[in-house]
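Researcher: Excuse me, tokens okay?
***
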Amino acid sequence: NSRNREKGGQDVSSENPFLLDETEQQQQQVNLDNFYLNEEEKKEAVSIVPESSTPSKAAASSDSAPAWSRGEVKADTRIQEIERKERELAEREAAIQRREAEQRQQGSGGAQASYDKSKKNWPSCMPLVHYDLRNDIPEQQQGLVKTGFYCWLIAEAGYALNLLVMFLMLVTGSGVKFSTFLFTCMATGAGIPLSWICWFQALYNLAQTDSGIFANLKFFFHFSFHLLFCALAFLSPPIIGDFNAGLFQMIYEFEKEGGIHKFFGFLCLMNTLIWLACGLLSLWVLQWTFRNFRSGGGIEATQQAGASALIAAKASMNTFGSMATSQKPSVYHEDTFNLITCFFPREKLIFPSSGAKLRKKNDRRRGREEEEETATEGRARLGGALVEGVEGMTGKRVSEVPLMAGLGPSYAPRAPKTSRLSKEEETKVDALQFLMNAARSKAASNKTANEDIQRKEE
């Protein structure tokens, strides 16, 4: 600026060595435009000489030039374009997720509204029971329930094959009695529905309730009977298991001669293998269930429940024990009393069922004791008064009087077992009363005589 003021406002563009004139600027622009052209296009473009005298052509060439040559090039167009596309994709993905969430919510609501857990859907040909593993059972428990379902199917196949073999052996006269076949029919007719209702439904509900204590105990109880029957059907021992076509029946059939017996032996072998597979798979299901029960804290919860039950029982015993007396319960409760005192030792224990009877008995006993105490006190007072009266009247000790020999100085009435007096005691009491009356009359006459003597002396 100071230099411009010294030049007096002269043009300084001619003195700047970095400024190009108009012709050089046009040539540089042409070279920049031809930078991305191949060799032939460059030759054709070089032959064209821009005319600096025509401003319209220069303007036209400047308008047709690329944007970056006109100063409109951005720093990083490709990165900005990628960022823009990423933002668009993120927005589209968020919109898609929102729509999927809404559709999922609507679908689940409709499914819950239309889904009925009591609807029978198995088997599909003729629905008899409800079985929906995917919708009813959590994913982590589906493997257990599926294994239990396969075990149940094997057991049903064993029931059916056992009934078929025993029926064929009955009609062919192979040693099966009609009563034995009736037991087979009863076992099959009861085993098929009860196995579904008792132990498989217990397992099904167990998986739904997430290893509850009651559900586990119910399953273990019913499943133990299923395991016992698997062992019985597998062995089919004589007398108690001859209604099954198992191991012993297979041995008997193979020992007999004849093709029909060999055929029955083969059927018994198939039935034995089926029940063996059912038993082994049942043991696996039992181990799986017990492992889940133990890992879920079921053993600790069962112990706590047992401890709580014992505490509640002890509290109830303390409540009823407050009414107890030192008398031990009757013989009817002797065994129960000994059993309970092993866990809850008490000196005084009473049972709710016998509480009213014992209270009445104790009331009667206390009444008798009060009557005995009253009678004893009365006899003691009466005896003491009579002894004094007899000694004062006769001037002798009571022990010296023949009738009063039992009322010496050591006379100390004791409480008898009953409130009634014996005949000997009644006789002594009557005699003492007579003597007391005589002593009173004698004392009164002596007093009167003494008063007369005193008056005469006066």
Q: What stands out?
A: The two ends are 175 Å apart (CA to CA). Residues 441 and 447 are 10 Å apart (CA to CA). The first helix runs from residue 2 to 7. The chain has a mean pLDDT of 74.
